[in-house]
Amino acid sequence: LRKQLGYPPFAHLISIRLQGNHKEPTSRAAMDLAGGLKRTLASWPTRGKEITVLGPVEAPISKLRGKYRYQILVKARAPGVGQYLLREVERAKRPGSKYKGVQIIFDVDPYDMI
Questions:
Q1: Looking at residue 13, what DSSP letter applies?
Q2: pTM
Q3: Which residues contact 110 (CB under 8 A, 6 or more apart)?
């Protein structure tokens, strides 16, 4: 069942969590980031089919220590493809970008999703 659904150990997962002090900018950043990832994958004719972007959704614990939290889940068959997407996200995080005030945290092959 895990193989059919594309979950470890048959695939690699990357959890991207965004958190910020204000709900609206954090939500907007999560939507923008997920949309950008999906557009990037759409432009890859073959490799784009090997990756699935799920979300964004509010994290299971949507507010923790005063921070609003959103999650994006990336499922990839090969680890190298997922790492390329992470570099794209890193470029988007440059100082002065539209993600100001929103922290982006990566967890490759997460132990849990909370």
A1: E
A2: 0.83
A3: 13, 15
